[in-house]
Prior knowledge:
By secondary structure, the chain is α+β, with helices and mostly antiparallel strands. It has helices at residues 3-8, 10-13, 22-29, 38-41, 84-93, 105-115; strands at 49-56, 63-70, 73-81, 100-102. The protein has a four-stranded antiparallel sheet with strand order 3-2-1-4.
Amino acid sequence: MNLHEIKKDWNLLYSVDWDMTPEEAIALHLEWGPLRSQKYYNSRDNDNETVYFVINTWKRPPILTLVRRRGFDSEELGNFKLPKNLEVEFLQGIGKYKGVYAVEGNVRDWLKKELEV
């Protein structure tokens, strides 16, 4: 799936939780950890679905991934390269550490502009 296909799939596009972080997704679906609001505690079950973007820096270049998580299942719906300037800015901002990161700041702004949301 590419960004153009995501942009055309309104159901998918408008199900993206722009505030979801990788840590919060794990807490929501796999653990009973802290979440941003009580409403999430009331919706934990295997039918609860979360769609969100992450940036994976375990390999170079970093990869932007659209993830769908339901219960213990996780599905990568698409993988995308960041524009070079955003890649460099992002890596400098995290100290070039390896990990899986939330989409925030200029990366989120660019992505929302690309997807027209």
